[in-house]
Design a protein that fits this description.
Low-confidence stretches of chain B: 1-12, 62-70
Distance between the termini of chain A: 39 Å
CATH superfamily of the domain at 81-334 in chain A: Aldolase class I
Strand order of the largest sheet of chain A: 10-9-8-7-6-5-4-11-12-13
Helix content of chain B: 10-25%
Strand content of chain B: 5-15%
Oligomer: heterodimer
Distance between the termini of chain B: 16 Å
Number of strands of chain A: 14
Order of helices and strands of chain A: EEEHHEHEHEHEHHEHEHEHEEEHHHE
Strand content of chain A: 15-25%
CATH class of the domain at 81-334 in chain A: Alpha Beta
Largest interface: A-B, 123 and 65 residues
Structural class of chain A: alpha/beta
CATH architecture of the domain at 81-334 in chain A: Alpha-Beta Barrel
Structural class of chain B: little secondary structure
Chain lengths: 469, 70
């Protein structure tokens, strides 16, 4: 039977006290009994052994089929998402900042109102008709350019009125320290997603996220996040594809480093502070930095992810990397191409230069064009960067045979370029971390899934009713 | 949806049992679908380690292969 099946992306693993089989080509997940796991592990590692339990039934359901294998450039989605780095200044001095303190290797500039409006014109002029458009305010600390944010939202909305079929989805990433009541209200009213940076426990946060004078920042950052949360709760928004309802718009985003490999305690702290949606992510750091993660840290991080899995399974916590949308995955182009940097997504720096994404801001070899007064009259046009269109999971040697490739899309371009071997050569540690958290995410999806019904039991004796205690 | 609770997690599956818990979703083609709605990009909670798995397709709400297979 194996001859007609593609088992190249099949992966077996244990998480949350259970054994699983994941088919990376179809995204399907099966829970295995211990005996079935043993049979499957033998079957996947040797030739000439009997078929393992459930093989035929799983294949009949659509597992083990060969996924599409793109080559060359992926088709361009057209520009639809633009990050406005409205501020190259920051009022914090985070030790691990990939943006070099907000300046991205250059001077501490702020975007002008004119450049921000040119960016909106550029996005609308290059988007396909009728497409939903996404605008993210980023920095540095974007609230240092608050007038630009307010003006840009108003200008974009005026464009909506002027051109039928255009819709904007705004988002904002802030360190939270400059949020006051009126700003929180504006954010709640206009931002589809707002991300406030908090690393977790106060001592963890303050260690690497001090103010410019070295002073702690946790208290003011947390107060800002709470102000946004309260404003979102007050603001009764109509939920829709472009606007999550109420407090679902807020995500707390933090960074974990070698100093807090027990980052599950930071997730726990943030959850206890009342934040329901949390994303803690591994630091991007040069080798040798005292806070950099190394392969030896993986067992500790694995332990933290397991604790977070327990929390997410037990309560209302949403941990970003564990939220899979398994039933509604993106299309194949997205699943192979990842974030869309340089193809459908780009970033505008304060000086009007356009880069493939926010992290490439300031890397002049990647500057794509510069906005000028001709934007509104049809130029310059966005052609994308072929290097990014070609750097997809189907083109990377490290992705071939990797069971996680269609949940990863080949990984972050900037991480590969900065910390790996180039755009086509991902950093091995980032791949290890992706697979580690994806295993936990799949296990959580299984725990959240409806209890098994007889039709889903593909082998073994009839089970007891496990849908209720 | 019935959530599997903590108490059930420690209950082992039967020895040879195979239970499909997430159904297959076909990877149809390389072409994008529902481009007008899709804002799938790095514009999400994660700004530095985005995973495609987090990104839902607005056009794929119903009628997955799993639904059809049931």
């Amino acid at each position: 039977m194996t001859d007609s099946l593609d088992l190249s992306l099949v992966h077996t693993f244990r998480r949350a006290g259970q054994a699983f089989l994941f088919d990376g080509a179809s995204g399907a997940l099966a829970r295995l009994g211990d005996g079935a796991l043993a049979d499957w592990e033998i079957y996947l590692s040797r030739a000439g052994v009997p078929d393992p339990p459930g093989l035929g039934r799983l294949a009949a359901y659509g597992l083990f089929r060969r996924p599409p294998s793109p080559s060359g450039h992926l088709p361009s989605p057209g520009l639809h998402s633009l990050c406005l780095n409205v501020s190259h200044r920051c009022n914090l001095a985070c030790a691990y900042c990939f943006a070099g303190g907000g300046g991205y290797g250059g001077g501490p500039g702020l975007m002008t109102l004119k450049t921000a409006r040119l960016a909106i014109d550029f996005l609308t002029a290059n988007a396909r008709p009728g497409r939903a458009l996404s605008v993210d305010f980023f920095g540095g600390e974007p609230l240092l350019a608050w007038d630009v944010i307010e003006d840009t939202v108003g200008y974009a909305q005026s464009r909506v009125k002027a051109a039928a079929g255009i819709r904007f989805r705004f988002s904002l990433t802030t360190n939270g320290t400059l949020v006051d009541g009126p700003r929180a209200q504006f954010i709640a009213r206009h931002m589809s997603t707002v991300i406030v940076s908090l690393d977790g426990r106060p001592e963890v946060h303050d260690r690497l996220r001090p103010g410019l004078g070295g002073q702690p920042s946790y208290r003011s950052a947390a107060a800002g996040a709470r102000a946004v949360l309260a404003a979102l709760a007050r603001e009764r928004r109509s939920p829709g594809p472009d606007m999550p309802s109420g407090t679902d718009a807020l995500w707390i985003r933090g960074t974990f480093t070698k100093h807090n490999r027990d980052f599950w305690r930071d997730v726990e702290h943030l959850a206890n502070e009342g934040f329901r949606q949390i994303s803690l992510e591994p630091v991007l750091a040069p080798q040798g930095a005292p806070y950099a993660l190394v392969p030896d840290d993986l067992p500790y991080l694995e332990e933290s992810y397991a604790h977070v899995l327990d929390m997410a399974a037990a309560g209302p916590l949403r941990f970003f990397h564990f939220e899979l949308n398994a039933d509604r995955p993106a299309c194949a182009a997205k699943r192979f191409g990842g974030c869309g940097a340089g193809t459908g997504y780009a970033c505008v720096a304060p000086d009007g230069r356009v880069y493939p994404c926010h992290q490439f801001d300031g890397e002049r070899e990647f500057a794509m064009l510069r906005l000028d007064g001709s934007t509104a009259s049809g130029g310059p046009r966005f052609a994308g960067d072929g290097r990014f269109a070609a750097a997809h999971a189907g083109a990377k040697a490290a992705c071939r045979g990797c069971w996680a490739q269609l949940h990863c899309g080949g990984g972050c371009h900037y991480t590969a370029w900065r910390h790996g071997g180039g755009l086509l050569d991902p950093a091995p540690l980032s791949c290890d971390l992706l697979r580690l958290r994806l295993e936990h995410a799949l296990a959580l999806a299984a725990l959240r899934a409806p209890g098994p019904v007889p039709d889903r039991i593909l082998s073994g004796p009839a089970p007891p009713d496990r849908t209720r205690d | 949806m019935i959530v599997v609770t903590e108490s059930k997690r420690s209950r082992p599956d039967r020895e040879g049992e195979v239970v499909l818990v997430i159904g297959p979703v076909p990877v149809l083609s390389i072409e994008e679908a529902a481009c007008a709605e899709c804002v799938t990009s790095c514009q999400s909670a994660c700004k530095t380690s985005c995973t495609v798995g987090n990104q839902a397709c607005p056009a794929a709400g119903a009628g997955t292969a799993w639904d059809r297979a049931k």
